[in-house]
């Protein structure tokens, strides 16, 4: 909750395009309409020249990302390696990614 309050406060400030925003699971518990509002604001931050880094598991959010770092291939001792880093279109072609099969339905052909 405090992360969202801080984010809302920050989004009200005028943007100079020199900030780094790191958000961890910012969409957890959000209604789908609120998720889209958050994405609109985050895109505005990026368009203003800021850098936005999201640690996220929501496929809709991942599908809208400019750059993806997919870590895996599994969890716990089977994870922690970079499976893919690059544009979203390349991720869906990565056989080692457990995320790719779920992500395909969110991307336009």
Can you walk me through this structure?
- This protein is an alpha+beta fold and 109 residues long.
- It folds into two domains: 1-56, no CATH class; 60-109, no CATH class.
- It contains five helices and four strands.
- The protein has helices spanning 2-11, 32-47, 59-63, 88-91, 100-103; strands spanning 20-24, 51-55, 68-72, 81-86.
- The strands form two sheets. It has a two-stranded parallel sheet with strand order 1-2.
- A hairpin with an 8-residue loop joins β3 and β4 (81-86).
- The longest helix is centred in the middle third of the chain and has 16 residues, at 32-47.
- The chain is globular.
- The chain starts with a helix and ends in a 6-residue tail after the last helix.
- The model has no long low-confidence stretch (mean pLDDT 87).
Structural class: alpha+beta
Please give the alpha-carbon distance between the first and last residues.
36 Å
For the largest sheet, list the strands in their spatial order: 1-2
| Helix and strand pattern | HEHEHEEHH
Low-confidence stretches: none
Helix fraction by DSSP (H/I, runs of at least 4): 25-40%
Average pLDDT level: 87
Please report the number of helical segments.
5
Extended strand count = 4
The number of distinct structural domains comes to 2
Tell me the strand percentage band: 15-25%
Shape: globular
Largest sheet: 2 strands, parallel
The radius of gyration over CA amounts to 15 Å
């Amino acid at each position: 909750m405090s992360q969202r309050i801080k984010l809302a406060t920050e989004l009200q400030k005028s943007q100079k395009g020199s900030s780094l925003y790191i958000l961890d699971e910012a969409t957890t518990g959000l209604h789908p309409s609120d998720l889209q509002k958050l994405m609109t604001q985050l895109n505005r931050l990026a368009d203003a020249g800021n850098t936005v880094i999201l640690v996220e598991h929501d496929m809709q959010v991942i599908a809208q990302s400019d750059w993806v770092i997919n870590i895996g291939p599994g969890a716990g001792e089977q994870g922690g390696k970079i499976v893919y880093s690059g544009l979203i279109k390349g991720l869906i072609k990565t056989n080692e990614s457990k995320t790719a099969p779920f992500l395909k339905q969110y991307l336009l052909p």
